[in-house]
Amino acid sequence: MFAAERRQLILEMVRANGAVSLRELARVVQTSEVTVRRDVRALEAEGLLDRRHGGAVLPGGFTRESGFPQKSHLATAEKTAIADLAAGLVEEGEAIVVGAGTTTQELARRLARVPGLTVVTNSLLVAQALAHANRVEVVMTGGTLRGSNYALVGSGAEQSLQGLRVSKAFLSGSGLTAERGLSTSNMLSASVDRALVQAAAEVVVLADHSKLGTDTMFQTVPTDVITRLVTDESPGHDDRAATELQALADQGVQIAVAGASGGGVANGGGPSGASGASGAESVARQQRRDVPLPGPRRQVPGAAAGLRSAAALSEQNGGTERARVADMRRR
């Protein structure tokens, strides 16, 4: 495929979806991410799109939001891996809230296997994914249906969450930065997400690498409120993703990274189903924290000499004893 044809196809994808990751663009145009990055830079120089961390968006992307049909076909492998890992954080008998989004929909499909679970949600897609789970109770908020993402929003949704208390909230959004936290492009969605957060003791954000470093109009969850981020592996050359993750970790956010290739999980682990403990251990093993390694042990002055003296004394005593026994045998 010639460069002009590639760039036209890239531009059409961005226009159709609002935002597309470099990984997805490379897959569709069947070339490397390095080549796609050059094409995106060229299109940005012409003012046809804007580069964002790990992807491309339409100019003025702060206000643009893709609808569900477009979002559902983006970063599918990454969403699957993130959902597999996030499901391991949920234990039997818990009460949780799950916000709207295609990634949270993937999570809900895996939560159907967790017995005794209660899920509060404003998402029709999440509720549908759990509709036939006999051991899961689904509680829906009230509100007005927002057709673009099949979510209930407005004062009715927010009022129905007042007085609610659950263990965890699972949310996704349009962008995530260490400076502002999780954000979205729609004011009504942001307001409901804030109400969901207020009901939870812990907040877990599900966001693939293309959303890291992206900032949108309405803040939903400040960084200091986020307990944990579950994300996917960013490309090795994506230094900005690593920088953003480190900045989030520095502010106290626990980072769990799932492997997108083949839907697996980095460093082992996988979907836990009803086994919350094993999933939690898997997440704990994947914390991207810089933990100082223990340094060389300090030796107490004279300790080594003391050990050598003890060994020499033991050898000396042993030799004396052997000589005494031999002398007794000769007698």
TrEMBL record:
GO MF annotation terms: DNA binding; DNA-binding transcription factor activity
Superkingdom of the organism of origin: Bacteria
Entries under SMART domains matching the protein: DeoRC, HTH_DEOR
Domain HTH deoR-type, chain residue ranges per copy: 3-58
Compositional bias per record (Gly residues), positions renumbered to this chain: 264-273
InterPro entries: Carb_Metab_HTH_regulators, DeoR-like_C, DeoR_HTH, NagB/RpiA_transferase-like, Tscrpt_reg_HTH_DeoR_CS, WH-like_DNA-bd_sf, WH_DNA-bd_sf
Chain spans, region Disordered: 264-331
UniProt feature, compositional bias: Basic and acidic residues: 321-331
Regions of compositional bias (Low complexity) in chain numbering: 274-284, 302-314
Keyword annotations: DNA-binding, Transcription, Transcription regulation
UniProt cross-references to PROSITE patterns, sorted A to Z: HTH_DEOR_1, HTH_DEOR_2
Record's protein name: DeoR/GlpR transcriptional regulator
Organism lineage string: Bacteria, Bacillati, Actinomycetota, Actinomycetes, Kitasatosporales
